[in-house]
Amino acid sequence: MLKTYWAQVEGTPDVAKLQQLQRGVVLKEFTTQPAKVRLLTAAESNRLWPRNPPIRVRQTVSDFWLEIKITEGKNRQVRRMCAKVGWPCLRLVRVAIGPLNIFDMHLGLGQWQQIESGRLISG
To answer: What pLDDT, on a 0 to 100 scale, did the predictor assign at position 120?
Structure first.
């Protein structure tokens, strides 16, 4: 199943590194499947809630946001992929699994909603 992550990474955008993620990354025990990767705009990344505590901010090192879609889900895979290409991951949020995403759920803290076969059940 397709999983979508938003990753805040340290560094500056680089086409060669994006292509490396898109082709697949050789990690210690396996090579990842190709990922769908794109840069996020500031407006998109601002849809996320503030992190508490906030990430570390280094004045000499910039950061940016990526959207990464993968079908695998091995241990810390997205963090390891980003680190391998030279972009340490500062914050990682899984925003979607298949057709379900956090922006359509409209749930408050402690609330839940039942799903069935990838569809929300209204009640």
So the answer is: 57
